[in-house]
């Protein structure tokens, strides 16, 4: 049963009362403080003196800083009990992160530094408010280190997913991307920055438009929790959670200190270049970090200089390099910065202010222009992100060990400009501006009930508002008409919840239990009064939705003997329909889709597939309801000095999955309007088409129950002190539980993926080199949504070929404009390269078929690469020679080919 609006508003009130009550009780301390000490060595066993050692709270508050003495030792005294992260930084070595749990007395550590980066094992996101080794948590997770971030992100942040088990990169366009987590992406994977929600309810379904506006140089780590984690992170985490962990300034110095870095890079495949400048200043009580970054990405050269999904190949059957070996519309400029300030009045409390901004200029949807549909205009104008939070952290907070309260503001802005008709120069040009503003609050209090049991109570609340004016410009009459935006202007969305979390070492070092339970609420409202009147009527009606449900998880880690442990985790996920689900009417990555109100007004029904062959299921279009998921993980983990690895099996059931299906309308729909688009054709089954897309109009619906299962495996073998071999493998299979076919979940299901590397890092030397390879299997299990998607199956019909021949191909000089010398008038005659008429081209491309996909599968591929680096005392240099064989390849739902043969060079100076 849906909760009332009043019930939704109670959530922030209850949470504020809880947190303020905790923060007001700061007069009494716990009196159970201890110390943390350790000895730092290098990989040869030598003592490391002068290394900077930082004590960090899991909320990323830097508490203290010290340096190791001549014996490599460090010590922090009078430390409040709790969970902490220790960071060790020494010129000439990679950054080292480890966790420590202090209950009472002294905690001893023995960290080792290496020249080349090693895989991070410390997580600060698996359990809220705790830092711990990843093997101690039942959830499956990835921890991507700062060095790995720098190595992989040659163009955009989402590339951190490369080389990771259970993850895959999704790259819709040069600027826009997402991260697949266990085969799910977009609105089923939430993104957080330092524990603050970055995802919004207006995000598009199959991608994360603003993820890549976060510059990679801003972050010290990226953590990805695989599987539903709605207990801590609320709605939209059915697939998992991507947590970006910011770099922070150090403080606690006896004397003020200034440090920083200068970094620069160049990549040959897209002729990109850029860099960052970072400066930190710290005193005993105050620290500030400033980072400014920017880079220019130019047009991309793909493998062999070809794009098999190009509109030229899709509609005309010609190789894409007839227009050049670099992909048009793939260049853009990105720049931004970050400031992070911390102030500690004393050792028990800290105030933090964080602000970051990112902007992309000149981006385009290449998959909608020459890379797919052949349109002339698909601009992404001025993508901007402004993200701010202020946090107060208190240790020994009355009856609690610690308490945290965070206020946040998140603004995401874009303007999309599109002209459809497959290159029709006379087609209407839609302008859709969107700005989402989010005000949020979150916090928690925690308490060590015993030395082995920590209880945490927390909550969060986010309030979103949309500004989305839209209009259509007619290039023939030069007139402007107000139009229905993608999502309603003035729409409001509220999302929040309260949760409890507990971790318990039932048998220390043998059995650890962890669990969390949350109650979620969400509310949506769109008002007709916020719409302009067009033709005497509003562009959208009043609409609203209120939902609520529970999510949670419970898991355990059993270690019968030191080298082996077994993990099990069950989680229940909850995803409320968001603004995109409820209000979208416009062009998306899969094609043009309409909303419930518009479709129901035309007596629409849901098709049994997402392609042009769909027939009516007989089910009328209805408003979406919440998705519920059940996830089961079971795994075994091996940790030995001769090898380490793990094997995990998982299963995710998504009940009432929101999928995209073809909209079926009664006969006679041609000429009716869907938003600013006129229905231009309708087939015999009732599927309808509009100029902006070659695919049939789509509708979102709770149409199926889906099951996703798979296996994940990693292995790391140090053959000797100098040589290390590592590999990982991921296999995922998804099906509609009703018919066994691939479900029409946005993004599709990635193929089997593998990664291999062999590293040489000689003892006592400051250089390293490794060969590595990415392997992807053939993916032939494509849904009807995938087959119709311009980025994947790229289905085309005779009408599509006709339109591109007369319009986009003619405008680009590939087709003779005919006697009148003007394109798009219907008298275009010959394809210049072959001398063929339109009918001959249609017959050559499609044979006797009316329509067919260009691809019925995603080909597998193997990439061979080599990289290495050298560390000086205050600087390092590295190179990466990628795709040595110049293989042409593309991932699932990519709107752009992968880079061809490429060399990347990087230089970084630290002071």
Could you describe the 3D structure shown?
The protein has 911 residues and is mainly beta. A hairpin with a 2-residue loop joins strand 27 (377-397) and strand 28. Among the domains are: 32-114, Immunoglobulins (Immunoglobulin-like), CATH 2.60.40; 796-852, no CATH class. Helix content is 8%, strand content 49%. The protein is built from ten helices and 57 strands. The protein starts with a helix and ends with a strand.
Keywords:
Immunoglobulin-like; mainly beta; 10 helices; 5-stranded mixed β-sheet; 22-stranded antiparallel beta barrel; 911 residues
Mean pLDDT: 91
- Which segments are poorly predicted (pLDDT under 50) over 5 or more consecutive residues? 1-8, 19-30
If you consult CATH, what is the topology of the domain at 32-114?
Immunoglobulin-like
Instruction: Measure the end-to-end span.
Output: 59 Å
Large-scale geometry: globular
Number of strands: 57
CATH superfamily of the domain at 32-114: Immunoglobulins
């Amino acid at each position: 049963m849906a909760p009332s609006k009043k019930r939704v508003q109670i959530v922030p009130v209850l949470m504020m009362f809880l947190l303020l009550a905790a923060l007001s009780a700061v007069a009494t301390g716990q009196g159970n403080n201890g110390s943390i000490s350790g000895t730092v060595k290098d990989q040869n066993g030598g003592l490391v003196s002068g290394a900077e050692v930082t004590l960090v709270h899991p909320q990323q508050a830097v508490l203290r800083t010290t340096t190791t003495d001549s014996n490599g030792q460090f010590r922090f005294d009078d430390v409040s009990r709790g969970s902490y992260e220790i960071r060790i930084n020494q010129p000439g070595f990679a950054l080292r992160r480890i966790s420590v749990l202090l209950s009472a007395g002294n905690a001893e550590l023995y960290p080792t530094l290496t020249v080349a980066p090693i895989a991070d094992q410390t997580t600060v996101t698996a359990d809220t408010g705790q830092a711990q080794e990843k093997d101690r948590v039942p959830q499956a997770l990835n921890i991507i280190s700062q060095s790995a971030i720098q190595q992989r992100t040659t163009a955009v942040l989402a590339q951190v997913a490369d080389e990771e088990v259970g993850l895959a990169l999704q790259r819709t366009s040069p600027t826009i991307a997402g991260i697949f987590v266990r085969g799910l992406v977009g609105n089923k994977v939430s993104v957080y920055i330092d524990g603050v929600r970055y995802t919004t309810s207006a995000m598009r379904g199959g991608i994360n438009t603003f993820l890549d506006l976060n510059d990679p140089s801003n972050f010290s780590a990226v953590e990805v929790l695989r599987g539903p984690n709605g207990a801590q992170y609320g709605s939209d985490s059915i697939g998992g959670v991507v947590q970006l962990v910011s770099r922070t300034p150090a403080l606690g110095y006896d004397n003020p200190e200034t440090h920083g870095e200068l970094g620069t890079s160049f990549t040959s495949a897209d002729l990109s270049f850029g860099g960052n400048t970072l400066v930190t200043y710290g005193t005993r009580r105050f620290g500030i970090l400033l980072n400014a970054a920017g880079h220019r990405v130019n047009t991309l050269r793909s493998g062999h200089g070809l794009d098999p999904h190009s509109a030229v190949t899709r509609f005309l059957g010609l190789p894409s390099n007839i227009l050049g070996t670099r992909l048009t519309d793939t260049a853009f400029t990105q720049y931004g910065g970050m400031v992070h300030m911390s102030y500690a009045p004393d050792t028990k409390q800290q105030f933090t202010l964080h602000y970051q901004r990112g902007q992309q200029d000149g981006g385009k949807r290449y998959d909608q222009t020459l890379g797919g549909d052949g349109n002339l205009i698909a601009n992404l104008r001025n993508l901007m992100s402004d993200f701010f939070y202020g946090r107060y952290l208190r240790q020994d907070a009355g009856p609690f060990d610690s308490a945290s309260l965070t206020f946040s503001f998140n603004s995401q802005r874009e303007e999309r400009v599109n002209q459809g008709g497959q290159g029709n120069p006379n087609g209407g040009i839609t302008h859709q501006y969107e700005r989402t503003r989010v005000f949020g609050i979150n916090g928690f209090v925690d308490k060590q009930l015993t030395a082995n049991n920590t209880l945490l109570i927390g909550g969060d609340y986010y309030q979103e508002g949309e500004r989305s004016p839209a209009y259509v410009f007619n290039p023939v009459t030069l007139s402007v008409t107000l139009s229905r935006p993608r999502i309603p202007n003035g729409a409001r969305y509220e999302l929040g919840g309260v949760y409890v979390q507990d971790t318990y070492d039932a048998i220390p070092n043998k059995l650890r239990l962890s669990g969390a339970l949350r109650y979620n609420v969400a509310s949506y409202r769109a008002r007709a009064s916020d719409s302009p009147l067009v033709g005497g009527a509003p562009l959208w009606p009043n609409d609203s939705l209120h939902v609520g449900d529970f999510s949670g998880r419970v898991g355990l880690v059993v270690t019968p003997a030191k080298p082996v442990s077994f993990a099990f985790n069950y989680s229940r996920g909850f995803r409320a329909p968001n603004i995109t689900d409820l209000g979208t009417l416009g062009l998306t990555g899969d094609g043009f889709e309409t909303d419930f109100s518009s479709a129901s007004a035309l007596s629409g029904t849901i098709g049994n597939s997402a392609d042009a062959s769909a027939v009516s299921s007989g089910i009328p279009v209805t408003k979406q309801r919440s998705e519920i998921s059940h996830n089961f993980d079971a795994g075994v983990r091996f940790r030995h000095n001769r090898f380490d690895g793990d094997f995990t099996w998982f299963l995710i059931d998504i009940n009432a999955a929101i999928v995209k299906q073809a909209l079926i309308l009664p006969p006679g729909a041609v000429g009716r309007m869907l938003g600013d688009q006129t229905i231009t054709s309708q087939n015999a089954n009732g599927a309808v088409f509009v100029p902006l897309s070659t695919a049939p109009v789509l509708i979102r619906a709770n149409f199926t129950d889906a099951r996703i299962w798979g296996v994940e495996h990693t292995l790391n073998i140090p053959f000797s002190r100098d040589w290390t071999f590592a590999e990982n493998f991921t296999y995922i299979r998804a099906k509609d539980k009703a018919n066994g076919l691939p479900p029409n979940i946005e993004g599709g299901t990635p193929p089997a993926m593998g990664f291999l590397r062999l590293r040489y890092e000689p003892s006592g030397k400051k250089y390293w080199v490794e060969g590595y390879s990415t392997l992807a299997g053939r993916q032939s299990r494509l849904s009807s949504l995938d087959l119709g998607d311009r980025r994947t199956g790229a289905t085309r019909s005779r009408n599509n070929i006709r339109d591109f021949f007369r319009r986009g191909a003619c405008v680009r000089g590939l087709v003779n404009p005919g006697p009148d010398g003007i394109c798009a008038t219907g008298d275009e005659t010959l394809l210049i390269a072959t001398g063929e008429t339109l009918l001959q081209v249609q017959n050559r491309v499609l044979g006797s078929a009316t329509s067919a996909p260009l691809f019925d599968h995603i080909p597998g591929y193997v990439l061979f690469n080599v990289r290495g680096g050298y560390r000086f005392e205050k600087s390092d240099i590295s190179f990466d020679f990628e795709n040595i064989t110049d293989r042409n390849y593309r991932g699932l739902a990519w709107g752009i080919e992968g880079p061809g043969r490429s060399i990347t060079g990087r230089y970084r100076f630290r002071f």
